[in-house]
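pls read this stuff:
=====
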Amino acid sequence: MLTARNLTKNYSNLQVLKGVDVTVNKGEIVTIVGSSGAGKSTLLHLLGTLDTPTSGEVFLHQENITRLKGKALADFRNRHIGFIFQFHHLLPEFSAIENVCIPGYIRGHKKAEVKERAIFLLETLGLKDRLDHRPNQLSGGEQQRVAVARALINNPEVVMADEPTGNLDSHNARELHQLFFSLRDQFGQTFIIVTHNEELAPLSDRQLVMKDGRIV
């Protein structure tokens, strides 16, 4: 489903990625692990089109997404890729349901349909009684579940998660990883997860171990 070929990334004279090849199949949960500075987040950002490679290509369903620019790239990302970050990046002035709806409104779906799906996702994620709560009224685990719902609102084919359990305690971290498997089974979602969590990473379908800018 998603394929990367010979990805490199340079920042001035520093080469962060040194020719990385990746293939991820539909419905897989893949973790990317390795020490700090190995290139994990850089690789995730290239796969998710948040950054551009110095060289190499990324394909999603045979479409070369590294060639997309500007509005075409933004539209593609909005339709096909969801993102979850260590810091939830929820907008503090909006409620949980409003935060979840925003990507759906950007895509141009009817507001009633977006809100209906947002309610469904939040209820699926155990937040039925938190729809109108703002982020500062939610626990860390609840905020991350809102971020998961937001990532899923446009039914993306792949969800990219960068250290999603980094700010959670061990109980909430285990719950979130189990949630990813439940969502994969329920919705057929594909997950690519960067993590330092040595307990939870082996629970994925496959681990990609990075060292010095390469997959080893």
The chain has a mean pLDDT of 87. The domain at 2-215 is CATH 3.40.50.300 (Rossmann fold).
